[in-house]
C-alpha cells in the first residue's frame, strides 16, 4: 500500500531525528521495514568512501570520476564549496551506501536546456555499494530524496538528467513520477531530461 505525501514526509521527520543530529532527513520505509536517511558529505569522513564508489565498475561509465585519491579530494573540495548544490551520503538501515547531489537548476548547466523556475531543484545519485544493487532499493531511496527536496515549499518541480544509456535508472525515475521530456546534450553525456512536478509526486504516492 502506498502512502500519501504528507504521511510520507511527516513519518520521516518524526523518527528520532534528535538522536541522529547529523541526519538532514530520515524516514522509516514501511514497505521495506528499513530506515532511509541522508546527511551532508564531510570531506574528512567521506573522501575515501566516495573515491571507492566512484571507481566501482558500475559507476565509472556514468559518472566518469574514476580518479586517483588526490584528484578526487580536489574534485570534492570544489563540489562542497559550490553553493548551488549540496552533497549527501545516503544511508540504508544505518549503512552508508549511496551518494547524492541536490542542486538548484537555475545555477546549473541544465538551465541551458530548459526554462528553469528559480526554485526548481535537481538530483544526481549513485548507489556505491555493490551489495545494494539489484534489490529494489533505488526507488524508495529516490522517493525519500524527492520528498526531502519538496520540503522546500517553493519548489514545484524536481529535475534530473540521467545518462541516456542508463535505462535502468531512467525506469526508476519514471516509477517515482518523473516524466521524460527529451534527449539533451550535456558536456559530459547524452542525457534524458526528466521532470517531476510536486502535484504529480503527491498524486502518485497518495493512498
From TrEMBL:
Alphabetical keyword list: Antibiotic resistance
SMART domains cross-referenced by the UniProt entry: AlcB
Pfam families noted in UniProt: Acetyltransf_8
Segment forming the signal sequence: none
InterPro entries for this protein: Acyl_CoA_acyltransferase, Acyltransferase_MbtK/IucB-like, GNAT_dom
Top-level division of the source organism's lineage: Bacteria
Coiled-coil region: none
All residue ranges annotated as the N-acetyltransferase domain in the record: 36-199
Biological pathway: Siderophore biosynthesis
Annotated function: Acyltransferase required for the direct transfer of medium- to long-chain fatty acyl moieties from a carrier protein (MbtL) on to the epsilon-amino group of lysine residue in the mycobactin core.
Family matches, as PANTHER family: LYSINE N-ACYLTRANSFERASE C17G9.06C-RELATED (PTHR31438:SF1)
Name of protein: Lysine N-acyltransferase MbtK
Organism listed in the record: Laspinema olomoucense D3b
